[in-house]
Amino acid sequence: MTAIAQQSSAAARPQASLRRSFALAALNKRFLFSLIVFLLIVIFGFLGPIILGRDTPLVTVGGLYDKPSADAWLGTDNFGRDVFTQLMYGIRTSLIIGLIAGGVATSLGLLIGTVAGFLGGLVEELLIAITNVVITIPSIVILILLFIAINTRSIVVMGVIIGITSWPWTARAVRAQASSLKTREHVDIARLSGAGTLSLIISEIIPFMLSYVVMAFVLQLSSGILQEAALSMLGLGPSGNVSLGIMLQWALLWESVRTGAWWAFVPPTLFLTLIAFSLLLLQSSIDEIFNPRLRRN
Amino acid sequence: MTRFQRYLLNKVLWFLVAFAAALVFNFLLIRLIPGNPVDAMVQRMSAGGNTSGEAMQRIYRAYMTEFGLDKPLWRQFLIYLGNLAHGDLGASFRQYPTPVLQLIKQALPWTIALQLPAIVIGWIVGNVLGVLVAYKKGWLDKVLFPASLFVSTMPFYCLSIILVYLLAVVWRVFPASGGYSFSMAPGWNWNFVASAAQHYVLPFASLMLVFIGGQAIGMRAMSVYELDADYVRYSRSLGVKDNRIVSYIFRNGMLPQITGLALSIGGMVSGALITEIVFSYPGIGFLLFGAIRNEDYPVVQGITLLIMIAVLLANFLVEIAYGFIDPRIRASETGER
Predict the structure, then answer these.
(1) Which of A270, B135, B226, B290 gives the lowest tally of CB atoms within 10 Å of its CB?
(2) What is the CATH number of the domain that holds B285?
(3) Which ranges constitute the DSSP H helices of chain A?
(4) Interchain contact B225–A (C-beta under 8 A)
(5) B289 contacts chain A (CB < 8 A)
(6) What ipTM is given for this predicted complex?
(7) Is residue B9 part of a domain?
(8) Range of B283's domain?
């Protein structure tokens, strides 16, 4: 009887703390601010082109680096294309790549980390070994070599590959948490009541790491976007697409900085910074919400 | 063999495994190119029409034998390893037959001269600021913390671009591009050094500022935890001077920061790739950028190998140093508790 009571209270714990966390989230100003900034950027990139009826960012509407005007709100780029339209599409491409990369990296890290931490033994040793090797090899090198080898780089392929190269940190942290969680009483109780390994992992381990997983995803999203930008500036961006990094690459190659065509490079620079800043703020405020030690009054 | 020696041996083995994996990646990934790299290169050259058919044939044959591309993959890998053992990274496609090693040797000093001082000075200034801000709190914290947070989240090349535009284009205080004036040839004379110094300021400042911001934030977080420690309260109640306490905190927060410093130095080569592109600075990043645009695979491969070796070595040295410095690791590894 007490066992059942304990089990239900244990199962109730994550939900209750989650609910409390949502209440705190609503009160946390930094959380709300960063979330709203990020959502506005998302809306601008995804709904902007639809609302304003801009079908494609790749049509020529003017000359080389035309100044901002009533027609082209942010002027034109080196090929005479509308910068404002490009900005919306660029944000969209960058966000999609970041979301895919973040999703892939977080899922891989979560999968490898929980399996290693929960199963233990030889599997754990092996997975830790792989993680330790992958973690020391700089991902930018793998990305450069792979992207040179791939001739046409689609948005999805870029996102997936960036994700595949950035899971180790998440896996390492998740493994540590999973291996400490598995010794907790509520897991023993669930195991005694006949739960299988998979259901133990899903209902007794993962819910307790949810806050960490969310934070990891936010960070991976941000680093995925920045990785894409860096690769695009090296000339290895998604082919046939506009992303924030590709806009910067063109702006640099065609000397917009040195000729003073600020409208070509300031918008992508500004939005990359804004995305990175809002996501970091979001991550640290989520940390504050879930981690009582960091909570200010 | 003592347990400490076993710890060292263990780390050496790990380093070798990671190094082997890095070599395999560096060898294999570039061979995923459809066809083979020489085909792609020769096709591009003939499309450009800047080399005669005979010369092309010669280059083609030279490369097929040099890489042994007609041989099975495992033989190719052995050839690759053999060449590496002799310090031979192959010859550049673009500037045939200049050895890749020579191109890297020309570019590397620029990258090191740009990055090393930026990292070291940024590290020192950032850490001191971090402790001060955590300890003094007040207006300093309110101004410096958000400022460094913003600067350090800003992708470093974004800061570079803004600095170039403001200080080199709008106000024309510094030159906008290059490592030295285009009219000069590199050499150790006064004019050249002066020109190089002038070109140095902006890329250096943009890298250092970002580094200061990141370090300050890390050190502040460490110090905030340390401030709660008993030894700080005790020292305060004894009336120990502020500067003294700050130095205690500094020493205790140092260990992870030293790791960070070593890893940044290891990541130095890859750290400034984009900054160098923004400034057209004649270092490794700029070389890589050109090599990617020209599909100069041997150069790309040489640079990626360099980056990997630097990062792996730094990781390895940090692990070894930790074994010596951190009393907790030393105790658990040698069993002296």
Answers:
(1) A270
(2) 1.10.3720.10
(3) 2-27, 29-46, 48-52, 83-119, 121-136, 139-149, 155-164, 168-181, 185-192, 197-200, 206-233, 244-253, 256-259, 262-290
(4) no
(5) yes
(6) 0.80
(7) no
(8) 100-334
